[in-house]
Structure to design on (186 residues):
């Protein structure tokens, strides 16, 4: 038996780290280069912002890896992004008054890393908050990263087992066809 594909943890960590390295570069561009190009005010400490971005990226990456089980083709991602970005922005409480958001939608917003990421980023970058002043958002992002990491491991393990099951079934079908063709030729 080939044990090469048995390491669910290795697969999840490897893919997660690959995504993280890509998105660290994107985050640096968006959070450092773009504000300098357009002379945008940034009063937050760069160290606090960097430390805040780490759990945000981890939570987003593992959230996306978990939800990827429901996506069958690449085009679906763009449709989901288009139709969810505005509602997620509203329920995050940054573009709509937080007090006006019904409790149900407030709790739904806690599922998404964007809620804590947006609020923490605005507090750090535009209000000059320190990491201890955004402790709620920071801890929530680490909690999400941990939960979504576990769900990603579970989802990937399930996918590996299902693909192995389908491969074995297909192999048996091909063997049966081969045996039938041998019997017919004899």
């Amino acid at each position: 038996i080939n044990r090469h594909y048995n390491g669910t943890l290795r697969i999840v960590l490897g893919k997660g780290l690959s995504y993280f390295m890509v998105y660290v570069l994107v985050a640096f561009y968006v959070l450092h280069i773009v504000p300098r190009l357009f002379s945008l005010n940034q009063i937050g400490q760069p160290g606090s912002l960097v430390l805040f971005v780490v759990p945000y990226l981890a939570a987003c990456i593992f959230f996306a890896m978990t939800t990827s089980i429901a996506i069958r083709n690449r085009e679906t991602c763009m449709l989901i992004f288009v139709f969810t970005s505005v509602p997620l922005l509203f329920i995050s409480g940054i573009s709509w008054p937080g007090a006006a958001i019904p409790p149900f939608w407030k709790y739904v917003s806690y599922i998404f890393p964007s809620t804590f990421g947006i609020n923490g980023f605005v507090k750090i970058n535009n209000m000059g908050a320190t990491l201890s002043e955004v402790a709620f958002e920071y801890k929530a992002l680490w909690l999400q990263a941990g939960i979504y990491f576990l769900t990603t491991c579970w989802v990937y393990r399930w996918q590996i087992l299902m693909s192995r099951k389908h491969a074995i079934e297909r192999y048996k079908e091909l063997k049966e066809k081969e045996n039938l063709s041998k019997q017919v030729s004899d």
